[in-house]
Give the backbone structure.
Amino acid sequence: QVQLVESGGGLVQPGGSLRLSCVASGFTLGSYSMSWHRQAPGKERELVAFISGFGGSTNYADSVKGRFTISRDNSKNTVYLQMNSLKPDDTAVYYCKRANPGPSAWGQGTQVTVSS
C-alpha cells in the first residue's frame, strides 16, 4: 500500500540546519508531484514547498523562500527538504504529501523544534 515515512527532524538552535527525508513506497514516485507541509501547535497545516514529478518546477511559501530547498531523487524513492537559517517560527510537525495526480497521501510527520 501507499506509504510515506518522514525522518530527519529534531531539536536545532536558531540559525541551524536540518534535512528532512520522505521515503515513499507502494507507488512510482516519479509519476507524482510531492509537497512538504507543516503544522504548528494551535495553527492550521500549511504548505511549505512543492516539487513537480521530475523536479523541474518548485514552489515555496513566502516564509521559507531563500532558506528551504525541496528536492527529490526518484531512483531512491525519496523527497528531501533542506532547511537552513532556521527560526523559532519554523517549529512544527513537518509532513510529506503525495500531491498529484489522484488521491493524496500523507506521512506521519516529523517534529522540528527550533530553540536555544
Remarks:
- The mean pLDDT is 95.
- The longest strand covers residues 18-25.
